[in-house]
Amino acid sequence: xxxxxxxxxxxxxxxxxxxxxxxxxxxxxxxxxxxxxxxxxxxxxxxxxxxxxxxxxxxxxxxxxxxxxxxxxxxxxxxxxxxxxxxxxxxxxxxxxxxxxxxxxxxxxxxxxxxxxxxxxxxxxxxxxxxxxxxxxxxxxxxxxxxxxxxxxxxxxxxxxxxxxxxxxx
Length: 170
Fold this sequence. Notes:
Number of helices: 6
Helix content: over 70%
Strand content: under 5%
Order of helices and strands: HHHHHH
Mean pLDDT: 84
Oligomer: single chain
Structural class: mainly alpha
């Protein structure tokens, strides 16, 4: 059967099915993106100190290489350094986002927002890093509250880190 053999009604039904299928695919993609973004935010925070150390090492290496024999056109490390520079740029972005989140939480009138920052800060940034149990004890809340607030904070950070794609209704 050729497409020109279909009736107007059949073409409309076919078009409607295609539209529904595309919408479903887009919704699945959005859900997958949000899931990945949350996972990536959690990974970033879990590896925060390692990534910061890596960034410092890369920045020091770039300073050492400038003006040295490694800058010769046959020995250039640009390709390797471009990849490492992505890490440095990412961590600068993470630090800016963390500062913004800290300010949001600290300026909030809700005690749970201030607690979310304290949990993120003490769990992933300030040394020594504290476990959920230690945080619960220190904050005088249940461990489940710490876990819930931490997940809420990571969701908030996902929006700050990855932008508009993390918001459902756009």
